[in-house]
Specification:
This protein has about 475 residues and is α/β, with parallel strands linked by helices. It has helices at about 1-5, 10-15, 30-40, 50-65, 70-80, 100-120, 165-170, 205-210, 225-230, 230-240, 250-255, 260-275, 295-310, 345-360, 385-395, 410-420, 465-470, and strands at about 90-95, 120-125, 185-190, 215-220, 280-285, 335-345, 365-370, 400-405, 425, 440, 470-475, 480-485. Bound molecules: guanosine-5'-diphosphate (GDP). Guanosine-5'-diphosphate binds near residues 103, 373, 385 and 409.
């Protein structure tokens, strides 16, 4: 195959410019050092300072992680409610999953960035449907939350343990007049409510109070990494770690996420079997959500417009004969373009495949259309379904170009891992049953934060951060959303 004949990658590529630590056993997680062979080279250099911070984080996680005396001590203090306000030697943020895989990956990267900034250790609650989905990211320790951890269920915006409610109820106060006696942990609710995060979640004074808790439990569906850039206290560190701000998910996602061997097996078999031999790969992600079910014909037409207007797919002739056929001219060398259709629905693949199977292309290119799976509906509760979803995110990220669907966190993760600016199918104008512009090309590879926090704790009116911070933009697909640039 073409992959086995290509030269061995330089060690720097294998470790993604120093992002990855070399000290792992390879067989237990084949994707860790293999994924880099499939990605195009990263457009963003990794800053030496980020590498230094990651190694420091890993050392701290080994010191404080599950199985250590320090962890046992911290858990004992949590259980006994003995939170005397002392800053613990080890401090934790517990991540609880909600929503689909794309949302989970966005919120987990954000939680890790928060942990990096605040000296906390991230512990991941892995429900059965995520078992073995990802490999351990930190050498010599575990990021999995031990199963006997007591506070995993029942949290919502209404919980008394929620930071915003503690503030409202005077349990904690900005000026410290709560006497320094704190509950043993705080719940940080970062789930969007009508496309906003709660007020009092990303003002500097809130983060000073949050910092006093040794234990935090966090639940989020959002890419709140963007909101961390709104807290002035974090900005200097963020700038040192990410000289190119639009590379946060790209680097941290590649650092943290390594598909487990089952999901990676799917990736390798499909890539080697269908995609590796092509001259070019185009990823096409079509996400149809049940609550906004765009009719097939409308969406299919929009995909064709987008790929035609941007020269992404060869046009077909009305004949099934090859261009220039019948004459004595030798056929031109044919280029093969593989189109990877990723969707829960199978009809986009069916139609597109039929078109290129039946007709010749005007430029003689061979267009081969594939779809790895079509589960029909979202089944976040099923492990094998999530393994296919993760495999398909990675397959998409190995493309040379991607067309993705507006609003989809699944699509965001794929193009951000790839370091590709997608062609993003614009949201439909439902009154016209059409999108005026078929697809837009965002200036950044970053995911969008759909739900910016309210910032009225700082100013009387709610300021628009994109108007003041040069590295923030509103999103092409979600007008009120924010993304790093
Ligand atoms: P979003 O809803 O598009 O923002 O993405 P999420 O990943 O958060 O949730 C959608 C979930 O539906 C995914 O995690 C998968 O479980 C499933 N899903 C959606 N699209 C696809 C797809 O193209 N392929 C596969 N295998 N699963 C998908």
């Amino acid at each position: 195959s073409s992959s086995s004949s290509s030269p061995a990658p330089a060690p720097a590529d294998r470790l993604l410019g120093g992002l990855l630590s070399p000290g792992f056993d390879e067989a237990s997680c084949l994707s860790r050092y293999e994924a880099s062979r499939r990605w195009k080279p990263s457009p963003f250099p990794v800053s030496p300072y980020l590498v230094e911070r990651l190694r420091r984080y890993e050392a701290n996680h080994r010191r404080c992680g599950p199985g250590t005396a320090r962890y046992r001590d911290a858990i004992a203090r949590l259980r006994s409610g003995d939170a005397d306000g002392d800053r613990g030697e080890c401090r934790y943020v517990v991540w609880l999953p909600i929503q689909g895989l794309g949302n989970r990956m966005l919120s987990l990267v954000s939680t890790f960035l928060y942990a990096l900034l605040t000296g906390r250790v991230v512990l991941v609650h892995e429900p059965p449907e995520m078992e073995g989905l990802f490999c351990e990211p930190f050498p010599g320790t575990s990021w999995l939350l031990p199963p006997d951890f007591p506070y995993k269920d029942g949290f919502s915006a209404a919980s008394n343990e929620s930071y915003v409610n503690m503030l409202k109820n005077g349990v904690v106060r900005y000026d410290g007049s709560d006497g320094g006696v704190l509950p043993p942990y705080v719940y940080f609710h970062l789930e969007q409510i009508h496309l906003r995060l709660q007020n009092h979640t990303f003002c500097e004074e809130d983060h000073r109070v949050l910092d006093r808790f040794n234990w935090m439990v966090l639940r989020s569906d959002s890419y709140f990494a963007v909101a961390l850039f709104l807290v002035p206290a974090y900005r200097a560190e963020l700038e040192r770690m990410f000289p190119a701000k639009g590379s946060v998910f790209h680097h941290l996602g590649r650092y943290l996420f390594h598909p487990g061997n089952r999901a990676w097996g799917i990736v390798e078999r499909f890539y080697d079997g269908y995609l590796a031999g092509a001259d070019e790969r185009l990823g096409l992600q079509v996400r149809i959500v049940p609550q906004m079910a765009v009719p097939f014909d409308v969406m299919y037409e929009q995909i064709l417009r987008c790929t035609r207007e941007h020269g992404l797919l060869a046009q077909v002739t009305s004949t099934s004969e090859p261009a220039g056929g019948g004459g004595a001219r030798p056929p031109p060398p044919t280029k093969v373009k593989a189109v990877l259709v990723v969707s829960l629905k199978r009809e986009y693949y069916d139609k597109l495949h039929g078109v290129y199977y039946t007709n010749a292309t005007a430029n003689g290119e061979v267009v081969a259309v594939y779809q790895p799976s079509h589960d029909a509906d979202q089944h976040t509760e099923a492990r094998a379904h999530n393994e296919r979803a993760l495999a398909e995110i990675y397959l998409l990220s190995f493309s040379d170009a991607v067309v993705t669907t507006a609003w989809s966190t699944f699509g965001y993760v794929a193009h951000a891992l790839a370091g590709l600016r997608p062609w993003q199918l614009a949201p439909l104008d439902w009154s016209k049953m059409r999108a005026d512009v078929a697809c837009a090309r965002p200036p950044s590879v970053e995911p969008c934060l759909h739900s910016p926090p309210s910032l009225v704790c700082r100013a009387r009116q709610d300021p628009d951060p994109a108007a003041h911070l040069p590295f923030l933009r509103h999103c092409e697909d979600v007008p009120a959303g924010l993304k790093l640039f």
